[in-house]
Amino acid sequence: MYRIIERQDLTPTIKLMKVVAPAIARKAQAGQFIILRLHGHAERIPLTVADYDRDGGTITIVFQIVGKSTEELATLKEGDSILNFAGPLGEPSEIDNYGTVVCIGGGVGVAPIFPITRALRQAGNRIISIIGARSADLLFYESEMRSVSDRLQVVTDDGSKGQQGLVTDALGEILKSGAQVDLVFAIGPVPMMRAVAELTKKHAIRTIVSLNPVMVDGTGMCGGCRVSVGGTSKFACVDGPDFDAHQVDFEELQMRQRTYRKEEQAANEHYHQCACGRG
User: Fold this and answer.
1) Do domains 2-89 and 100-257 have the same CATH topology?
2) Tens digits of per-residue pLDDT, 1-44?
3) Which of 25, 77, 172, 200 is spaced 20 to 30 A from 230 at the CA atom?
4) Gap between the Cα atoms of 261 and 72, Å rounded
5) How does pLDDT run across 91-120, given as a tens digit for each residue?
6) Where are the domains of the chain?
7) CATH number for the domain whose boundaries are 100-257
């Protein structure tokens, strides 16, 4: 059992939990993920590590309530425990001194971009960060991202905070200014990452995205997280989750993300109808 020692409501639908998992904390690196299971009847939930504390032996996870499993996870409080918590899984992000790196986080993607941004800064890069959300009340980690960036640009769809528009608008302005950009790293909704990739491809700027397709075991055995990269099938759990954005088949990825939409909706409806929440 893995005990939750801290819980925060970052936004109405995005939650943070700090979990005691010393063995994972000792080995976790930026870009890796864990898979958790609440109880014996729960599905596995893959979540990118939002932070780790080697001395304290904790892993921080940040997740958005999008269905039955994440809604059930959000009911846990400080002192509660999670049955299974496996990791670190996946390949760590490739951290090096590239020069100037633009780190982009959209929505809940701001959480996993944070440790990557921090590691890139520690490696000597100049960091320009862009974080975005639909509105100010859905923004989080602003101070955390500012602390690891040389420059931070906040954007919201409705203009309630920072610049009005999309993260690609802010990125486009940076590129149009003629500023030297050696690498772009983007994490967020698939349409956002796709738009970033299309923009940077025009400027021939290497771009990395972190993918989170349907995943079951996290060890490359089930094949559920298969993605096409450069015309070759890859498994996000063992070959990624980081990939060259210009090589990702985003059309196929978006189609595969919709595969179990009906089943997910049915599970959510059943969860709300069942008084125990464990049906």
Assistant:
1) no
2) 999 999 999 999 999 999 999 999 999 999 999 999 999 988 89
3) 172
4) 18
5) 999 999 999 999 999 999 999 999 999 999
6) 2-89, 100-257
7) 3.40.50.80
Within 8 A by CB and 6+ apart from 186, the residues are 103, 104, 105, 106, 109, 113, 167, 192, 193, 196, 197, 207, 208, 209, 245
182-230: pLDDT as tens digits: 999 999 999 999 999 999 999 999 999 999 877 777 777 777 788 999 9
Could you tell me the fold of the domain covering 2-89? Elongation Factor Tu (Ef-tu); domain 3 (2.40.30)
Give me the sign of the Cα torsion angle 167, 65, 63, 69.
negative
Taking alpha carbons only, the member of 247, 219, 239 closest to residue 94 is 239
Alpha helices in the chain (DSSP H): 22-27, 68-73, 110-122, 142-147, 167-176, 190-202, 236-239, 250-257, 261-273
Q: How many residues does the chain have?
A: 279
Enter the tokens of residue 220: 């490359």
